[in-house]
Amino acid sequence: GLLDTAVEILFEGADSGTEKGHDGPMPFARSLPLEKALHQDTLLATRMNGELLESSHGKPVRLIVPGWYGVASVKWLRRIEAIRTPFRGYFQSKKYTIEQQTGSGTQTVVVGPMPVKSEIIRPTDGATLGVGTNRVFGMAWAGEDAVGAVEVSVDGGESWRQAELIGPRAPYSWTLWEYLWEVAGAGETVLMSRAISEGGSVQSTRHDPLRGGYMITFSRETKVRIDPKLRSQDSLGDVQALHMEMAAMAEEASGLPLDVEMQFEMGAGI
Length: 270
Hints:
Blueprint: E1 8-17, E2 26-33, H1 34-37, E3 43-45, E4 47-48, E5 51-52, E6 62-64, E7 77-83, H2 90-93, E8 97-102, E9 105-110, E10 117-122, E11 128-141, E12 147-153, E13 161-162, E14 164-166, E15 175-183, E16 187-197, E17 222-233, H3 239-253
Parallel strand pairs: 11-17
Antiparallel strand pairs: 1-2, 1-7, 3-6, 4-5, 8-9, 10-11, 11-15, 12-13, 12-16, 14-15, 16-17
């Protein structure tokens, strides 16, 4: 059991590294509030899909914190400790934190639960589409909550229309969605999507600059051009086809630069 003085559970991994301005290697360590650490869905995993973990996945044991950003799921665990004061280690006070506006200024907040978010997978930014029916397809998630709805804008956020959700909806899980867009004429326009959690949280359409390169959850623009010489007759897809599209998208993204090389001020981050 835990003493009444315990406030957090600290998890330390076997990996360590050096950071500029700090002496010696520092182990990667993160803590969780008692409520999250003791939640029935927070796990210490030794296997994945019935097989023992591989080293790249955190062998021999790793923490799994569903609904939180992956940085919370410490790999290669070597120590777990109940602590009496909030943990202020480097990877929870300097790295993986954001600033949050308060009445008197800002305060540092640890990156933890994932906010509600959606992304457009098809069409891609800069795509050329035809006149007629065009399918807009994507995915959404809401961290510890389930996705309740997804809306699509075909006019840069001026108006929003309901998309169709596909497949099961559950906390911690992403949800597929699609929308059939009827296009009558040529031109250029901006597509956007926004997700709404079952708890009523709505995806923001603007990036909060205080978050820097973390928690990039705002609705990103997808610019498309309609070519009057092309005709489109898309229809709603089946789940298998959508999974294939997701796999193709992941393959395309695998060649992109790491987030440390991206322009965070443009909203490219985690």
